[in-house]
Amino acid sequence: MFFEVSYSDLAGRIGKIKTPSGTIETPAFIPVVHPVSQSVDVEFLKKLGFEAVITNAYITLKQYGDIAREKGIHEIINFDGPVMTDSGGYQVLEYGTIDLEPSFIAQFEKDIESDICVPLDKPTGYGLSYEVAERYVDETIRNSKETLDLIKSNNNTNSIWVGPVQGAEHLDLVKKSAGLLDDMGYEMMALGSPVQLLVSYQFAILANIIATLKSTIMSKPIHLFGAGHPLTIPLAVALGCDTFDSASYILYARDNRYMHPNGTSKLDNLTYLACQCPTCISLTAKEFINLKDDERTVELAKHNLYVLRSEVLSVRQAIMEGRLWDYVAQKARAHPKFMEAFKLFKNYKYLEDATPLYKKKAIFFMESIDQYRPEASRIRRILSTFRTDKKKIVLFPDTEVSPFYCSQEYFKLSKKFSDYQICAYNPFIGIIPIEISDIYPVAHNVISKKKFNCNSSKDYPTFVSSLQEFLSCNFFDEILIVADDFMQGIIQDIQITSKNLKVIENSNGVIDQL
């Protein structure tokens, strides 16, 4: 197996992709390197820790021809690690067509000993009609089949061949494309044409596209073309992308765009440089701006690479610590368009599959969106299966003492209501029977101390479902609810059917008053 996963959280995976020229640790940013003109020396990329690069096979063919076949792509670009080659799809996107057959460029990629190869595809871009997009998808599928037939006939099993998934915002085409490429036997998938979406910060559309692909193909590594924005990386990784490439570091530099953890800024607008990379600690913002054009571009490109590297390492660490949800939540507050995408996570059920059943650390609940984190969704489903023979129930707000049966409140309740089913509740996990209040993450979460006032049951639909399902699946003749502000807001909006329903406002010493 060329891809081994060591850790996962959400759909993000720390793993290793093994290639003929070395191993790539995922998630990985793969810088684009021009085969002829390199503004930033490839040796700098290696020293900075980038294990792989991507270059263009079409341009290499046009510029070097047989020389590239003789020397190989590694010598051409002076990089001895894994090299990925794009066959010319970007040129197709930019110029409409190129004068090569899929089998010819595939043979060239094989001849120059590329480690990770992409067949010639027809990128759908963004904004095409369904009919045109479908035609492009069909052409890509034909090209991919022709390429794979050639590779199999040559018994070339060393390189990793990547299936180019197209379809853009037409999600059924994305699903169709991914399914057909998977059936053909491609070992790795690549999602094409996101650049136009990223330029306009259409993160929500991108999220749906990635989720469609990932829901179709769970286990194989996924590459995302053109993803070189600091905010794109945590989003793409959380949704399941393992590698991503871009020339953004140099393209942004040529436009005087300075990357930072939450986006980009025009260098001219900066007064201070908060980054601690070698470039930024040696210059003031004014000195940076006043560098000669060529020097400024190179130094800014290097700075941008440091930011991208830092972002990848931060995401990896978040996966290791089981904090990827929290990390993405922080990033989502950097831009409203990112928050739109983050709110879609509740629709992506596959995120739960790769999220560990147990973590070393407690999970955090900050606000209503956190009710959808995979750990909460999973435990609510488990708690919903609980059944009791008891005919009376008392519901009490969850306490800061975990598990609940260790709290003074439970000690008092158990003495006073020995024949009752005792349950705690909190806004994120739902109804918690005392018997299973010590399982993860029921007893392993930290909730913000702010009051979770609930103006409407619509704010916490998962809690409403948990409450209604628990009461309907068990048969209680008497229901006693000690209601905090949150529960009071809930029960105003929903109907609880019971002949003996009693609601008491939570307060200090409330148990003694029951």
Write up this protein.
Helix 6 (102-111) packs across helix 7 (130-153), helix 10 runs parallel beside helix 11 (232-239) and helix 12 (248-254) packs antiparallel against helix 15 (293-321). The protein folds into 2 domains: 3-255 and 322-347, Alpha-Beta Barrel (TIM Barrel), CATH 3.20.20.105; 367-513, 3-Layer(aba) Sandwich (Rossmann fold), CATH 3.40.50. Strands 4-11-10-9-8-7-6-5 form an 8-stranded parallel beta sheet. The chain is built from 23 helices and 20 strands. The mean pLDDT is 91. It is elongated, with a radius of gyration of 27 Å. It is of the alpha/beta class and 514 residues long.
Shape assignment = elongated
Q: Which class best fits the helix and strand makeup?
A: alpha/beta
Radius of gyration computed on alpha carbons: 27 Å
For the record, what CATH class of the largest domain applies?
Answer: Alpha Beta
Largest sheet, spatial ordering of strands: 4-11-10-9-8-7-6-5
Number of helices: 23
User: What's the total number of strands?
Assistant: 20
Mean pLDDT: 91
The separation of the N and C termini measures 63 Å
Oligomer: single chain
Structural domain tally:
2
The helix content is: 40-55%
Parts with pLDDT < 50 across at least 5 consecutive residues: none
Q: Spell out the CATH superfamily of the largest domain.
A: Queuine tRNA-ribosyltransferase-like
Strand content: 15-25%
Largest sheet: 8 strands, parallel
CATH topology of the largest domain: TIM Barrel
Known CATH architecture of the largest domain: Alpha-Beta Barrel
